[in-house]
Write a structure and sequence with these properties.
This protein is mostly helical. The chain is 75% helix and 0% strand.
Length: 85
């Protein structure tokens, strides 16, 4: 575990301390969880953007999705949605 000094605006600090009191958890633990959640979200967004860029780049090439596989996937999604309703 590494230490990291993070100056916070007073209002942010006050909100963090209040949340820590309400949840009866250390403010550092809440801050760590919030940072970890933000980092996971950033990684998810980056992965999504990379996949979308790859799909756009490969569209129409021999690496594009197989038409039979694509139609089977669409058919499966349509059946799954009908059952879920």
């Amino acid at each position: 575990m590494k230490n990291f000094h993070l100056p916070l605006p007073e209002s942010t600090y006050d909100q963090l301390r209040a949340a820590a009191l309400r949840s009866q958890a250390p403010a550092t633990a809440l801050a760590r969880e919030a940072i970890e959640a933000w980092l996971r979200e950033q990684a998810r967004k980056a992965r999504h953007e990379a996949i979308a860029a790859y799909a756009a780049e490969m569209s129409g090439t021999r690496f594009d999705m197989d038409p039979d596989l694509e139609s089977a996937a669409v058919e499966h999604l349509l059946k799954t949605r009908k059952r879920a309703k």
